[in-house]
Amino acid sequence: MLSRILGLFGFICLFGSVTAESKVRFDHFPVPKTVEKQVSFWKKIFAEYNTKHTVIHDRNHPDVIIDVIDFKAFEHRFNNGRAYTPQERRRITAKYLNRYRLAISRVRKVGARASKFGAMERRILEVYKRHNIGITNRRNKTPQIRSQRGLSDEFAVAINRSARYLPYIEDIFRSRSLPIDLTRIPFVESMFNEKAVSKVGASGIWQFMPLTGKQFMNVNKFIDERNSPIKATRAAADLLSSNYRAIKSWPLAITAYNHGLSGMQRAVRQLNTKNLETIIHKYKSPTFGFASKNFYAEFVAANQVYNSMRQQVTGDRNPLRITQITLKERLSLHELIRKTPLDEKTIRTYNKCIKKNTYTRYKHRPLPKNFKLIVPERLTASISRYIKVYASTGKSMTRFTL
User: Fold this and answer.
1) Which residues, other chains included, contact 365 with Cβ-Cβ below 8 Å and sequence gap of 6+?
2) 299 lies in a domain?
3) Which residues contact 44 (CB under 8 A, 6 or more apart)?
4) Has residue 70 been placed in a domain?
5) Structural domain includes residue 141
6) Rg (CA), the chain
7) Which of 163, 134, 184, 146 is nearest to 299 (CA)?
8) What is the DSSP string of 2-67?
9) How many structural domains does the chain have?
């Protein structure tokens, strides 16, 4: 069966062009030739290929797409319509990659004569020739390939998710005089999934690591503000602003969001340039891999795809109907639930930064001083009355401010 699967090839087409609006909005974000090719690849991942597709492509030239595995077609043709498990998909993908690596090795050894070995060798010869990339000359580096799952269906879902928070996120960035386009970074980081947690411990829609998060917000065993979309947005705005002040380049500041500011500063010193294209080609570091090299292009692609797919903006800047209370003095969850109209479910719904154990084991522990509690707008007046009556030590409330 596998040989029959390996004999099938996917075909691709370019996603739609950039709108005039996005060109204007992208004055801060130049797209040199290398990045433009990366952007072309990521637009296909975000807008053309869905999670049933796995794209096999060149690691250093992402736009060189060698093949597309269509698992939906395979399921109907080879698996009686049953969906492949993740393990089965990984196993099939690995066999594809290994077979194409063998094809590349044969092409490197005997050039065009490798076509006699089969369809995959012919495919390698045809794809690289089409892109004017020589691979038969031994002086050229051996192509490295990888696989990438399509994300168009997840991106469409992410656009719906983003509608809940983008008005607040945009206002936070606007209040700091930061380019609004930066608010599309969560599409790259988490697809606006509030529950996103990476294998290495990054959390929330902005995917802050614990150590970085602690520099900008509360991250401890009671509170983890990385998981509050609004609070994490303030932290992300501060981090991006700090990166830009230090390095004076938005492409590098955005790349530093993934790779770290010190890493990008090291690249600038070593190569004596702030040109991202040059850094992508020439900077050598064990940690500056595919993800870091492509992060800026992913951001550009995500913004362009979002601008082309989003629905008409309503202008409602407070879609969740929330306000924010700043607790000037320390109050516990137990006090808030007993003495105000707030119940546990409401607090959990709007304050995802409060950990589960804080509602049980630590419910009598005061929340941090100046903790910003997000509450439904309709409860603002009654909570305000409670604070005036119950808080005799100067606790006060402020309206939702960005």
Assistant:
1) 222, 332, 358
2) yes
3) 12, 14, 15, 55, 65
4) yes
5) yes
6) 25
7) 184
8) HHHHHT------PPPPPPHHHHHHTTTS---HHHHHHHHHHHHHHHT--TTEEEEEESSSTT-EEE
9) 3
- Structure token pair of residue 54: 């796995």
Q: Are residues 74 and 195 in the same domain?
A: no
235, 255, 256, 286, 401 from 242: Cα distances, Å: 10, 13, 10, 24, 21
| H or E stretch covering 147 | strand 145-149
Q: Are 193 and 204 in contact (CB under 8 A)?
A: no
Give domain status of residue 163, yes or no. yes
C-alpha to C-alpha distance for 101 and 6, rounded to whole angstroms: 13
Q: Is 131 in a helix, a strand, or coil?
A: coil
| pLDDT of amino acid 316 | 85
What is the tens place of the pLDDT at every residue in 154-189?
999 999 999 999 999 999 999 999 999 999 999 999
* Own/partner long-range contacts of 215-220 (Cβ < 8 Å, ≥24 apart): 218/353, 218/368, 218/371
The SS3 assignment for 304 reads helix
Domain that holds residue 94: 52-149
Tell which residue, 199, 183, 188, has the closest CA to residue 232. 183
Dihedral, CA of residue 353, residue 355, residue 360 and residue 361, to nearest 10: -120
Greatest distance between any 2 Cα atoms in the chain: 87
Q: What is the pLDDT of residues 17-35, one digit of tens each?
A: 333 333 334 468 999 999 9
**Residue-level length of the chain:** 402
Query: Tell me, what amino acid is at 7?
Result: G
| 285 and 159 in a common domain | yes
Report the distance separating Cα 256 and Cα 240, nearest Å: 8
Shared domain for 178 and 245, answered yes or no, is yes
Rounded-to-10 torsion of CA 210, 213, 219, 220: 30
Task: Examine the domain organization and report whether 177 and 286 are in the same domain.
Answer: yes
